[in-house]
Amino acid sequence: MTAYILRRLLLVVPTFFAIIALNFFIIQLAPGGPVDQYIAAHSGIGDENVMQQRLSGAGSDGLDQAQGEGGNYRGAGGLTDEEIAEIEKRFGFDKPISERFWEMLGNYATFDFGESLFRGKAVVDLIIERLPVSISLGLWSTLIIYLISIPLGIRKAIKHSSNFDIWTTTVVLAASAIPAFLFAVLLVILFAGGSFLDWFPLRGLTSNNWEELSLWGKIVDYFWHMTLPIIATVIGGFAGLTMLTKNLFLDEINRQYVMTARAKGLTENSILYKHVFRNAMLVIVAGLPASLIGVFFGSSLIIEIIFSLDGLGLLFYETTVQRDYPVIFATLYVFTLVGLLLNIISDVMYMVIDPRIDFEAQK
């Protein structure tokens, strides 16, 4: 197993480099970059007040140069070539694209992601600020889905074609057909001061007086705020995992080794959880990396907007629209690295769950 893990880790390097390089050059060569947006804002295109707030972190010296009397941008009448060159230099676009690429790789190798072009903060600080919301939504929704879907899928396989199987399938499929944003709006109307009850808050991850609460009060306040967003996030996530679990267990239950085990006098629970469970769970284990990535990067933009949550989903959307390259590339870097490593962990888990699987023997 050790030799296999080392080979996979060595393959991570060229794979990672190819993914980062491909995305870097595609994004960099796409029109409408940060320099274009800055120039557009100073040429009277778009809402200058909004752009001034976005560009406030790009450097006060450069902004002072671009402003005239009365706080109006001189660029509203057109920017000179010298001013455009200064903007490109400030954003680092005065260098060749290949030099920018290698410089970025060198910084990212030490996890130095630089600063946002338009927000005046370090990229790491921006991500850390939004991470609690994304972890909250992703972690709790994934945990709830797995805790409900796997036992439910096993039960449906055991009770195949029974009334229990039929009505639970109907409920699960009906829930999955409801769009998450529509269900979120319904929850707001019913339980968050819409037209009926006012049981849950509608804004933020915690209350304004959260720091003053006791430990138990903080826990209660946190889950009080997260109840509706989590319910809205998980409502459509049961169907796929539940039906996958049912079909996998149903397929294993009908295999010859199960009939042999029954003929030997083994109990149904022993057959189910000592033999069938190990074999049926292999495919579900393969999906764990995607689920774990979703914990950090699977924030729902619409859910965050409806419940006024500043998570990574909203941050990534805003920075993509603004072409905030440091945030975009840092996200891509972390996402790719975590994904590659979790794929290796998935293969290791295969071998732990089923010792018969030996990747080292496959040359």
Notes on the structure:
The chain is mostly helical. It has a domain at 131-353: MetI-like (MetI-like fold). It is 70% helix and 0% strand. The chain is globular.
Q: How would you concisely characterize the structure shown here?
A:
The chain contains 17 helices and no strands.
Query: What is the percentage of strand-forming residues?
Result: under 5%
Question: What is the CATH architecture descriptor of the domain at 131-353?
Answer: Orthogonal Bundle
| Helix content range | over 70%
Overall number of strands: 0
Spans of at least 5 consecutive residues whose pLDDT stays below 50 are 46-77
User: Whole-Å distance between the termini?
Assistant: 13 Å
Main pleated-sheet profile: none
Number of helices: 17
- CATH hierarchy, class of the domain at 131-353: Mainly Alpha
Structural class of the helix and strand makeup?
mainly alpha
- Rg for CA atoms: 26 Å
Average pLDDT figure: 77
Membrane topology: Multi-pass membrane protein
Pfam families: BPD_transp_1
GO biological process, one term: microcin transport
GO cellular component, one term: plasma membrane
